[in-house]
Amino acid sequence: MRPELEEIQLLEAYLQGTLPEEQRTDVAVRLLWNQDWQQKVAAQQLAYQAVRLAGRQQLRQELESIYRRLFG
Length: 72
Hints:
72 residues, 3 helices, Anti-sigma factor
């Protein structure tokens, strides 16, 4: 696998809390010293928030549509 994809998978697992403790510690230490990784983690967290928000908005629209069909 390409190193960029491996890095993304590692950071994703770190954010999701699915890394083994030793790897989690290694990533945490690297994040303390590596601004590039700090920025990548921040960007990935923002992406997760955007996806959650989009999902909530879509669900809200679907529920409103159902409500209108039932009671509108």
